[in-house]
User: Which sequence fits this backbone?
């Protein structure tokens, strides 16, 4: 797509928000939201084609960065599938909640062989690097595609309460070297009362230790989602959330909670039971979930790393969720599939 003065102005504004997320007026070319420290990327012009758009226009409209199609065809093909599904922009309306999607909480017993770990809140897959601060070699963007699972309570159980599950992608939070997680995903929660189960489904983003921010993007069980999270500095981030079933998407820029800085030393693709009021919730019986196109890029080189595989000096680890730090009963487990795919399933009754 030819670059013109308008697109250059939008690109400059997008680069500005990547570097300094302000807490007042939106920078030129970007749009305010109902939250004072969060901005929305504008809708692209009619006929916008992300496949052939230049990099400045992709940044200007909040689209994920393009992988090199000659370096890793799988990463590029997944990117192309995700961005081509985003056809209808939704203006974000945002709601802060009391839910938090936390760092991994390791269980209090030894890891199993083969880089497989136990945690009390996560199940999924992570890749890691040796970064100690944001810069060349850090993970700076990642994405994944998944199907929104149907939420229910444990088979044969109707306890009058709500069970929770979240499917998300994010960076940082896998180890103690970072104190944050920048992430986005969907929630699938189940409430059963009087023998009738109802589900709650929505998209969200978060920069932990801040709380989750719910978006107004329509989400329903069975929808296919494509989600990207990216950072441009240690103190700015954006997310691109696409409902590939409805072709609706949101592109949002936001900053970290006070005192938090991004490192980019891990990238992860997770099913989680979140925290509410400093307590882990009961895991919803999501039964099974599947994620593909699990890709992260290295800052400075744009080298693609596939989830489930890792790369040179990029270890890969799986995480299995257990009941507690002392109880080894498995409640959610991942299975790494070929080509950067993951399958998740609950084990027995939800806890």
Assistant:
């Amino acid at each position: 797509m030819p670059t013109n003065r308008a697109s250059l102005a939008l690109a400059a504004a997008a680069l500005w928000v990547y570097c300094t997320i302000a807490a007042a007026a939106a920078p030129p070319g970007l749009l305010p939201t109902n939250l004072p420290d969060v901005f929305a990327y504008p809708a692209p012009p009619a006929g916008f084609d992300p496949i052939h758009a230049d990099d400045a226009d992709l940044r200007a409209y909040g689209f994920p960065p393009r992988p090199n199609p000659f370096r890793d065809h799988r990463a590029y093909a997944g990117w192309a599938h995700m961005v081509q599904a985003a056809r209808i922009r939704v203006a974000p309306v945002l709601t802060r909640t009391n839910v938090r999607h936390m760092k991994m909480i390791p269980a209090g017993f030894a890891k199993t062989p083969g880089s497989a770990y136990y945690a009390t809140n996560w199940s999924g897959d992570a890749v890691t690097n040796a970064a100690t601060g944001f810069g060349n070699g850090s993970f700076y963007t990642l994405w994944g595609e998944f199907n929104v699972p149907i939420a229910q309570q444990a088979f044969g159980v109707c306890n009058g309460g709500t069970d929770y599950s979240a499917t998300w992608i994010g960076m940082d939070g896998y180890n103690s070297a970072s104190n944050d997680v920048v992430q986005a995903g969907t929630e699938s929660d189940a409430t059963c009362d009087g023998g009738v189960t109802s589900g709650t489904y929505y998209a969200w983003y978060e920069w932990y230790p801040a709380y989750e921010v719910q978006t107004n993007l329509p989400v329903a069980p069975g929808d296919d989602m494509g989600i990207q999270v990216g950072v441009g500095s240690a103190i700015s981030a954006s997310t691109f959330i696409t409902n590939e079933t409805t072709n609706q998407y949101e592109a949002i820029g936001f900053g970290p909670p006070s005192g938090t800085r991004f490192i980019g030393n891990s990238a992860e693709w997770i099913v989680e039971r979140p925290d509410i009021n400093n307590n882990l919730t009961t895991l919803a019986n999501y039964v099974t979930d599947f994620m593909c196109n699990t890709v992260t890029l290295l800052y400075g080189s744009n080298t693609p790393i596939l989830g489930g595989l890792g790369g040179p000096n990029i270890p890969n680890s799986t995480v299995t969720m257990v009941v507690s730090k002392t109880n080894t009963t498995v409640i959610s487990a991942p299975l790494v599939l070929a080509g950067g795919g993951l399958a998740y399933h609950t084990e027995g009754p939800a806890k």
